[in-house]
Amino acid sequence: MISPNDNGFSDADIKGLKLAFSQHCSTANEATSSELGTALPPANYRTGLHFNKGAGIHEQRIPPGGIWMESPVDVKGKGIARSLDWHLATMASNDREREEITYKLLECLPRSVLASLQRRMTPLLQFDVVGALPTELSLFIFTYLPAASLLACSLVSKRWHTLATDQVLWRRLCYAHGWEWRTDVAAPTPWDGLGDADPADAVIREERDEDEGMGDEEEDEDEGSGEGAGDVIDFIGDDSVDWTSMPMNIDDIEAQGLSHLLIPITSAAAITPISRITSQHGVLPRSAHLAPDYKLLHQTHVLLHNRFCQGAYRRRILPGADAGGHSAAVYCLWLWTYPAGLDGRSAPLQVLFTGSKDRTVREWDLRTDRVRRVVGELHDSSVLSLCVSSDFAKSGDGEEALASEPSRAGFLVSGGSDRRVVVWDLGKDKLVKVLQDHLDSVLCVRVDSGRLVTCSKDRTVRTYGFPSLKPQFVFRAHRAAVNAVSVVGDVIVSGSGDRSIRVWNANTGTLISTFEEHHARGIASIEFKPPYLLSGSSDMHLRMFDIASSQGWSTNPEVNTIPSSTAPTLTSLTSHAQDNIAMIPGQGMAPFFLHSSLTRSMSDTPRPDANTVVCHACGSHGLAARREQERHTHLVRSVALGEEFAVSGSYDLTIKVWDRKTGALVADLNGGHTGRIFCVGFDCTKIVSCGEDQRICIWDFSHGIDTSFIKL
After folding, report:
1. 613 near 622, Cβ under 8 Å?
2. Which pTM does this prediction carry?
3. In this model, does residue 603 exceed pLDDT 50?
4. What is the C-alpha to C-alpha distance for residues 473 and 470, in angstroms, rounded to an integer?
5. pLDDT at 573
6. Which of 325, 457, 527, 674 could form a disulfide with 440 if both were Cys (CB 3.0 to 4.6 A apart)?
7. One-character DSSP codes across 31-93
8. With the C-alpha atoms ordered 375, 378, 384, 385, is the resulting torsion angle positive or negative?
9. End-to-end CA, the chain
10. Are residues 359 and 329 in contact, defined by beta-carbon separation less than 8 angstroms?
């Protein structure tokens, strides 16, 4: 065993190593000389014997023809180790011999040297397989990663950072969610001066039966003055956080102790807050027409999602009657975005339309929170419902050719308690037509795919071509007021005070499916986004289910159960194409098929288990473990459905945000209204609500973030 000393090796060790090595060299050189002739030593090579006075012995030098360029006789420890390492490695004839020689040398070294060698050798053992591939193949591998993994990969190396931040990857993730970059970006206008509000006393209403129709509340509500409707009311969230100076990356978030504000979500849990920061009173101007940054777009949407989950919003109220607002209760609202190029604008403009008991429709500029236009003298009484659309049918689709081309700005459609349906051209700012076919209050109007659908207290649903307004069908199957309708493509869904939901074929006017006793009381509101249907009712509950698979959730844990043998089942016909999904047949009606373009993957739908119960009407599964305090405590008057959330507004003065997939309560918004809430709407940046107190509240989740590049 070789024993090291302070100089590396003892004299006896050095002598033994040199002696053994010189003998090995002599044997090798003799073999070489016999074949190739005698090799002359280099000029700096010393021959003969050297007398070591300290040890009192003679040492044999390397004979002529050796390979040492300089004798290591005078060097101890590390010097001879380095020389031996080089010479032995040179003499080895193959990798196996070099491996054995190297191992023998490593056995001779102290542990501290071995540790240092290990650190130096580690980079030699690492090989970047993905980074070494052609860029196209590397990007193809990265397409299988979610956003959180891409962010982690960007921290590995410069090569991986370049790959993980490639716009192709992030554009793919954004398109999977339907998130689009708005290329025609203009510098936003800051908000105007903001005032305070004077909250009014809460309005308490007696319990009554709303099954017959949702227009009854106008008959017994107070007019109100509209005073106290100011602008910014408050800020809800963590007061310790300055949302206008959010950190730029994940490391900064952790360093500042803000990690608790970022709520993990599937496939996009890692979040980098956005670097485009705004001032306290609005968005700072910046240059327009930026190149699309899909990573920024994705991270902005994820940050907004987390703010919804955190309930971090700033609430403001649009001006009241004294500043040009409504002078009575506000029944309905609609968010609308004008396309770029109208009225000389280089960028789209988002506005809000509201309808009121004061018989007018007002258009609000959400950049300034001021009224842009008042459409009045169209209704003789309350405006109960409205919508805006530019989705016109082509003349070749059974529509008559119009005298002039429809305006790109869109058409405003409103329905009122005066039985009228009014159509207004927003681009030309003129009346198109007034329809008076219903026999009672018009409770809901909707437009999609070149078709106008209206419903009324007279228990009927009517359809018209759009924008020709040519009558098409009248549906009369409901036994009570039809409070809400929703239309997507060729499918019309109606909800009634008779507690049923009915599905109609818009092309033929036939009833496709009926869901009786869908709620314990009359259905007040519905929204259909295939294949999901969300409904709110006088029974104070919400219900959301997948029409194609009959699965979903409900806030009511007391849904009756039935044997699985009697539950409705999907019906399929071989005559239909494979890309069609059969809807549940109702009450003996023929099965109906939704085209796959109107559906999404059913794999994320909650499956029934021991904790679920089955609806005896439609077979959908509701979560039984619903906490009592989560549900609404009064009629659910309005619902809105998005890609990730469902929003409900109730007569209990609250707005609740629910997870669309699971039905879990995400946020509970209160304090904005002092009267019953009549309508809610939302997009990825905000929730808008209106109600009996004449207030129009905007619950802004995008404060402090530049969202001008998001297509709304």
Report:
1. yes
2. 0.69
3. no
4. 10
5. 29
6. 457
7. HHHHHH-PPPPPTT---SEEEETTTTEEEEPPPTT---SS--TT--THHHHHHHHHHHHHH--
8. negative
9. 78
10. no
